[in-house]
Amino acid sequence: MTLLVLLIVRFFKQYLLLLAVNQMAASLFRFVGGAARNMIVANVFGSFMLLIFMVLGGYILVRGTTLALFLKERERE
Fold first, then answer.
1. Which helix (H) or strand (E) holds 58?
2. Any idea where the domains of the chain sit in the sequence?
3. Whole-angstrom Cα distance, residue 26 to residue 20?
4. What is the pLDDT of residue 12?
């Protein structure tokens, strides 16, 4: 019985996460559409947002090394 309860709790947690990501994506899409009315500006703005998400999400810069990189830069100054 406890396994079933754990599976149901995990399902609802993942579903809540899915809803949160969907809301974030929809609001970002609407923000880019409202902020950049021109198609060229919207493409540049959207590409910049994807780059920011990749950098801050850990795809390009690993989260554990970013603090070390910033500390090394401050020590050099």
1. none
2. 2-76
3. 10
4. 94
